[in-house]
Amino acid sequence: MDKLERMPFKAQKQLFEKLEKMAGIANLTKEERLEYDEALKVYRDCKNIVDYANVEGRAAGHAEGRVQGREEEKISIAKSFKEKGTPVKLIAECTGLSEEEINNL
């Protein structure tokens, strides 16, 4: 009880709200408790699906961005070499771009 009295009012309020919620769940009938547990399971499943999709979407976006960045870097390097008069065939070998792509730069 001493700890409770030393807690700020806002923290006390949050604690009592949580205790009230727990007491409400504890007083459910057997059927109500089964329904509550099933609804909670569905909620958690949906939340996990959404969280997983967000993580996968970010990972796919990062991977796609890295690939695009590499391609842009290859093109930039090829342009620099082309401006300095490096033979197209050598640029193609070094960058992995086709000779046609390099000629179109």
How would you briefly describe this protein structure?
This protein has 105 residues and is mainly α. 86% of the residues lie in helices and 0% in strands.
Q: What features would you describe in this structure?
A:
By secondary structure, the chain is mainly alpha-helical. It has one domain. It contains 5 helices and no strands. The chain has helices at residues 2-6, 9-26, 30-83, 88-95, 99-103. Helix 3 runs antiparallel to helix 4. It is elongated, with a radius of gyration of 31 Å. The mean pLDDT is 84.
Helical residue percent?
A: over 70%
Most strands sheet: none
Over the alpha carbons, how many angstroms does the gyration radius reach? 31 Å
Shape: elongated
- Say how many strands there are: 0
List the helices and strands and how they pair.
Blueprint: H1 2-6, H2 9-26, H3 30-83, H4 88-95, H5 99-103
Helix pairs in contact: 3-4
Could you name the key traits of this structure?
elongated; 5 helices; 0% strand; single chain; 105 residues; mainly alpha
